[in-house]
Fold these 3 entries.
Entry 1:
Amino acid sequence: MRQRAAWDCRAPEEAHLFNPAFCGALAFEFVKSFSQAAGQSGVDLPQVFCALPIALHRETRKNLPSTTRTSVYTWLQRFPAAQVGYAERAIDLAPIVKEAIMFAVARQTLAVTDSGQFVVGAQKASFTPRFLETATPEVKEIVSSARFLGRWFATAGSTATLLASWSITL
């Protein structure tokens, strides 16, 4: 795993898109959407680590299906390019996702249940319509994708099955 550069030494785009507040809010949106779609409150930790690298990767994000009725497995068969480089991206983003989750838990926007699942916390971290009105098209796409991935992953079956479809082993 590479050592992350200090925040003031990072490229502005990286500092903005990968900062803990932004990625923590994406994790919040993912967990919130997953919980609403699944009719349950908890999301397993590995799913957050799986979702954010997808939402933050432009090519994969732009090729996501338009509906959750397309299964993850069917989509991956139709778009196998999504898995090219995915493992490396997920590994590279793991420290960023970890930092974002810690930030969100510390700010009480995410909480951890006794069973180790993530749930929406006492504080909101949603991207407001007003924020999204002034956001760049890329930020809007990333937020929309995080929400979509929550709904989509909720229909994908068990965490182990979902991760296996992305060729992730624990």
Entry 2:
Amino acid sequence: MPVGKAKPVEGAGFSQALTQALQSVSASQHQAVSMQREVQLDNPTVSIEETMVAMQKAQIGFQATLQVRNRLVQAYSDIMNMHV
């Protein structure tokens, strides 16, 4: 029986999910910075409360991203230190 090429995996892979999550965090940070700028320029359509919530969301997203990165680095380090 001849060996054929492996089929590509269907659906979203880990790298695609990670990329989307990073883009989401980046967009959240960009929105928070934009809202901060509008508040500083006294734009009446942007409230300080909405801006603070956006900043907190961006901060939480960033902290979660750091935790995922730390765990991935730890897992990689653990795997590399395994004896076979």
Entry 3:
Amino acid sequence: MTYIFGLAFASLTAIVVLAGDFALKLAADRGHTGMSSLVMTGVALYAVSALCWFWSVRHISLTQAGVAYSMLTLLALVLIGTRWFGEVLGPRELAGIGCALAAMILLAKVG
């Protein structure tokens, strides 16, 4: 059960960070200043994610938490970038994503 709690908190960390990343990207694209409400929202979400991360690594190893977090954020950021911000993935980016996923899968087996 501890392992499940750890993975749940790692996943929650990723979701909160993704929300913060989304807010910061919107602020950057709209030319907001560093003190705008979108930037402050992103900063606040990062602070919440630190607490989620703390609870994650209390329940599982840093390696296990890192692999779960990395896989979720990598895939979600690619989806957000391509879907909402119109970013285009070329063969080089797709190969890089594939290599990153393969590395994370290998790390998960060791962790």
